[in-house]
Amino acid sequence: MTDSQALPVAGLLLAAGGGRRLGGRPKALLPHRGRPLVEHAAGVLRAGGCARVHVVLGARAADVRERAALDGCVLVENPDWAEGMGSSLRAGLDSLAGTDARAALVLLVDQPGIGPEAVTRVLRAYRDPSSLVSAAYDGVRGHPVLFGSDHWAGVATTATGDRGARAYLKEHAASVALVECGDVARPYDIDTEADLAHLE
C-alpha cells in the first residue's frame, strides 16, 4: 500500500462560515475537546495523512488566528466568505495552484464526527490528478471529498453559493470512487443550537 505521507495530496479545510443559524457564532471558534473546532479539524487532516494543510478562514478570521493553534498550516483568508461555501472552496483551490499538490482532500470544519480514519481511507484512494473520490456513508456520498487537480478548474466554475462542489460531483457521478466510511465516522453537521450537543 502507498505510504500516505508520500502522496501529493493537500488537506483543504473549509472554516470560513459565520454560523448564521448559531446566532452568528463562527463554527471555527466553537469549543470542542477544549480547543477551537478549526484546530481539531486541522489536526484530523494531519493525523489522516495530509502533510500540507490549507485552512480557509472568513468570519472573524483575526480571532481564529489568535485563538487557534494552526502552526504549519497555510491560512487562506476568503474576503467573500459571506457568499457561501462555494467562495471558500474556490479560494482554497486557488491557494493550491502553484504548489506541488496534485489533489485536494476537502473537509468541512463543522463535521467533528469525521476523524482521521475516514481521511486516510479517502486519501489512499488517490491514484493520479484525474482522481475523484468521496467518502460514503451507507452508500451515500459525503465528506471528505478528494479532487485531483484535473478537476479544480471545473469545480471552481460551478462552486457558487452554499452548494460547494455538489453540482460538479453530480455531473461527474459516474467518475466518483466511493469509499465507505460509515463504520469509522459519523457525518453529522453542526448547524443549529441542537447540534451543539455533538460537541465535547
Short description:
This protein has helices at residues 37-48, 61-67, 85-96, 116-124, 152-158, 166-171; strands at residues 9-15, 31-32, 35-36, 53-57, 74-77, 103-108, 132-137, 140-148, 177-180. It has 200 residues and is an alpha/beta fold. It has a 7-stranded mixed sheet with strand order 5-4-1-6-8-7-9, with helices on both faces.
Q: Could you list some keywords that capture this structure?
A:
globular, 6 helices, 26% helix, 200 residues, disordered N terminus, 22% strand, alpha/beta, 9 strands
Kindly describe this structure:
- The protein is of the alpha/beta class.
- A seven-stranded mixed beta sheet has the order 5-4-1-6-8-7-9, with helices on both faces.
- Helix 1 packs across helix 4.
- The chain is built from six helices and nine strands; from the N terminus they run βββαβαβαβαββααβ.
- Helices cover 26% and strands 22% of the residues.
- The chain is globular.
Poorly predicted regions: 1-5
β-strand number? 9
- Helicity level, as a percent range? 25-40%
Estimate what percentage of residues fall within beta strands. Answer: 15-25%
Mean pLDDT: 93
Based on helices, strands and strand pairing, what is the structural class?
Answer: alpha/beta
State the end-to-end CA separation: 34 Å
